[in-house]
Specification:
Layout (H helix, E strand, L loop, with lengths): L6 H18 L14 E6 L3 E6 L2 E6 L12 E2 L4 E3 L6 E2 L2 E2 L2 E4 L5 E4 L3 E7 L5 E9 L4 E9 L16 E7 L5 E6 L12 E8 L5 E7 L10 E6 L9 H5 L8 E4 L4 E4 L6 H7 L16 H14 L1
Protein name: Egg protein CP391S-like protein
Organism: Schistosoma haematobium (Blood fluke)
Length: about 300
C-alpha cells in the first residue's frame, strides 16, 4: 500500500525525528547528574590554576595584561539582543543570539535558553556596561562605580570607575574574563563569577551546571579562560594521546595528571608543558608557530656560532 503525505505531515515527521535525535544525542550529564560539579585540577601554583570540568577546561592566570579589543565600545542603555557575526557554540549548542543586560549579564539562546556568563558584585557599587560587537569578537565591559557620600548612579561626579570586568566571546568557542583594579575580598560581600550552562535533557528535564571563578582568584590582573575540552580527555595512554586525530584539536599528554589534555592556543602551550612537567615536547613544525622561548634559544645558537 502506498501512503501519500501532505507537506504538513512531512514537516511534523521531520520535527519529531530532529527532536528525538537531539534528546538521544544529549549530554552525559543527563544520565550522570553528578557531572554537574565535576572538577579535576590538572596543575596549579600561586600564579595559575588549570582544571577540567564538565565539557570545559578553565585556565586561570594572574598578573596578565589587559586583553586587546580593537573595536570601539558603546554604552548599553537598555538590554540588547545581539546576533553574533561569527559562529559560537556553548556546551555544544550553536548560539543564535546573545542577550546583553545592562547589569553585564550575558545570556545565550538557540531556540531555548542555553546559559549565561555572569559577573556580579554587590556592596556599595553600581555598574555601567559597554559592548563591542566585531566580526570576530564580542566584548562586554562592566565598569563598577562606588555609591558613596549620598551620590547616586546618575551623579556626574563619579566619572572614573573603581574597577572593571571585561568578558570576551570568541569564534573558537573561548570565553575569557579579565579583572582590573578589583578591590580586596573584604570590601565586597558577594561576587559570583563564571559560566552557567542550562542543559536540556528532555522537554521538561533540565540540568544546570556551573564553572565559577574561586574568590581567591578574583583580583586585579587575573585572566580566566574557558575552552571546550574536545576529544582529548578520552585518550587514556601517552601513545593514543600523541597520535590522536581529534578534529580541530591538538592534544598533550600531561604526566602529572596522567591524562590527555587539550593543547588549545600557543600562548598557554608552554604553561601546560611546564605545569605537566612533561619531558616530551611536541615539535611538529608543520602546525606550530615559534614560541618566545624558541626564538630566544635560536638567537643564542646563532650568537654562539658567529
Amino acid at each position: 500500500m502506498r501512503h501519500n503525505f501532505a507537506t504538513g505531515q512531512f514537516i511534523l515527521l521531520y520535527s519529531i525525528i530532529v527532536l528525538i535525535y537531539k534528546f538521544i544525542d544529549c549530554h552525559d550529564i543527563c544520565t550522570k547528574p553528578e557531572l554537574r560539579k565535576y572538577e579535576k585540577v590538572i596543575f596549579q601554583s600561586n600564579a595559575y590554576n588549570y582544571s577540567h570540568h564538565y565539557y570545559y577546561s578553565r585556565m586561570i592566570r594572574s598578573d596578565q595584561s589587559p586583553p586587546i579589543v580593537s573595536g570601539t565600545f558603546e554604552r548599553l542603555v537598555d538590554n540588547k539582543d545581539i546576533y553574533p557575526k561569527f559562529s559560537f557554540t556553548f556546551y555544544g549548542s550553536k548560539v543564535i543570539n546573545f542577550r546583553i543586560l545592562t547589569t553585564g549579564r550575558i545570556e545565550m539562546y538557540d531556540e531555548n535558553y542555553l546559559g549565561v556568563v555572569r559577573n556580579y558584585v554587590r556592596s556599595g557599587y553600581y555598574v555601567k556596561t559597554d559592548i563591542s560587537n566585531e566580526r570576530e569578537l564580542l566584548a562586554v565591559r562592566m565598569s563598577y562605580y562606588p555609591v558613596a557620600g549620598g551620590k547616586n548612579k546618575d551623579s556626574h561626579l563619579l566619572v572614573v570607575p573603581a574597577f572593571t570586568i571585561t568578558t570576551l566571546i570568541q569564534p573558537n568557542g573561548k570565553i575569557s574574563i579579565y579583572y582590573a583594579n578589583i578591590p580586596t575580598v573584604d570590601s565586597i560581600t558577594e561576587k559570583p563569577s563564571g559560566i552557567y550552562g542550562w542543559l536540556h535533557c528532555g522537554e521538561t528535564d533540565k540540568k544546570v551546571t556551573q564553572i565559577y571563578v574561586p574568590k581567591i582568584w578574583i583580583r586585579s590582573g587575573t585572566l580566566v579562560e574557558y575552552e571546550a575540552l574536545g576529544d582529548c580527555p578520552k585518550y587514556d595512554s601517552t601513545e593514543a594521546c600523541r597520535g590522536s586525530k581529534a578534529p580541530k584539536t591538538r592534544c598533550i599528554w600531561c604526566e602529572t595528571a596522567n591524562m590527555c589534555i587539550t593543547r588549545s592556543d600557543e600562548d598557554t602551550y608552554e604553561l601546560k608543558v611546564n605545569g605537566c612537567k612533561n619531558k616530551y615536547i611536541d615539535t611538529d613544525t608543520k602546525t606550530l608557530t615559534a614560541t618566545k622561548t624558541d626564538l630566544i634559544n635560536e638567537l643564542k645558537k646563532i650568537s654562539g656560532s658567529a
